Amino acid sequence: MSEHDQTQCSIEIPDDKILDWIIGSATDYNVHANADDSPQPSSSAAKKIPRVPSMRSEKPNFKKYFAPQAVSIGPYHFGEPKLQAFEKVKPIIAKRLFGHDQEALISLYKKVGEEEMLKDLRSFYEQDSTTKYCDKAFAKMMLLDSCFILYFINHVYLGRCSFSETVFMSFHQVLSVWGDLFLLENQIPFKLLQVVMSFSKTHNNLIKIHGLIHDRCMLRSSDQRSGQQRLESELTGDNEPDHLLHLLYLSHKPEYVVFATDYSKENKEYNYNSNNFPTVNQLLDVGIHFKPCHPISLNNIRLSKGWFEFSVALQLPPITMLGNPKPVLLNLIAYETCLGKDAWFASYVCLLRSLIGNHEDVRVLKKAGELGCFNTTSGLITKSWISSMK
């Protein structure tokens, strides 16, 4: 048997030792593998969970919006000192998720440790981030992280347990973890979550994940039921998302292609840039008002004429956020940059940055129903959106 074959078999542990390995300390094993031992994922293919492009992460004061504050998910930030508190309790959480069915947890470990499964999971990440982990360590990381996410959704975020019954000490910790789950460099393959769901036998997982995504979704349609049905269809079959951030991205994906009035013939020499596009109050001064678009979509931005053509309205998709919108906006922009497709989020944020020049601009958009934050006072809404546009 070759050295490489021996490495592939290194995931095997006697059944009576597997549970001890899973629920043991997160730092009681050697995670490193020799370069020749670990599988080499293809470096040419685009990764489904890429790192944040350096052009964005290296901007002053931007790095903090891409780095987890409480918990590490996946290999990119594994082992960082500030994230060790939750790293130490992940084995406890995995055991709690499976309750008394510890045999299912053992079977899950064997499933995750299959050669083809590990090869597939490694392929989601940048090559240099996974080759330093031997198969046994990488399988344990994937298992514990996926169990942590499902436990958080089922027992913490949806409020099934009180803080005293969980490892979470405060609501602030819950919000920090919730935010960390939607960072580009803090993702885990969605297909692995599906595998863990099947072994843990937790109920109504798709509905619960929809609740998590719905609370993070910025577009608030009046038809939430159709939105839920569409989102649940994204969770199954050939349209299965790559990870949670991808699922959030899909929940904002334009459903309609809206053809607005073509003003290009009348404005052949006009080119948009951030220096010549007017702010909200400058538009108001010339009689242009604001109202939510219908249908609600990031690509449905248009100028519409009122009765008898006496007024004009700029129709925008209304956006509502829980907490600070900047981290999720930046990570969605980074993700769509990696996809190399239509830059819906980047374009919309550029437009908002042009429209919003001061607190009065935010006040007008809020009054028109264009901007909002849940559970936030009017003053904090203004401060939150102003800071997000900088």
Give a short summary of the structure:
With 390 residues, the chain is mainly alpha-helical. It has 18 helices and five strands.
Structure description:
This protein starts with a helix and ends with a helix. The chain is mainly α and 390 residues long. Strands 1-3-2 form a 3-stranded mixed β-sheet. The protein has a two-stranded parallel sheet with strand order 4-5. The radius of gyration is 23 Å and the shape is elongated. Helix content is 47%, strand content 5%. The chain has helices at 3-8, 15-23, 54-57, 84-98, 102-112, 115-122, 127-130, 135-157, 171-180, 190-200, 205-216, 224-234, 244-251, 280-285, 326-339, 344-355, 359-367, 378-388; strands spanning 288-292, 302-305, 312-316, 319-321, 371-373.
Structural class: mainly alpha
Q: What is the succession of H and E elements?
A: HHHHHHHHHHHHHHEEEEHHHEH
Low-confidence parts, pLDDT < 50 over ≥5 residues?
1-9, 222-227, 256-272
* Coarse morphology: elongated
Strand content of the residues, in percent? 5-15%
Distance between the termini: 58 Å
Average pLDDT for all residues: 78
- Work out the radius of gyration: 23 Å
Q: Widest sheet: strand order?
A: 1-3-2
How many strand elements? 5
Number of separate helices? 18
* Major sheet characteristics: 3 strands, mixed
Into which percent range does the helicity of residues fall? Answer: 40-55%
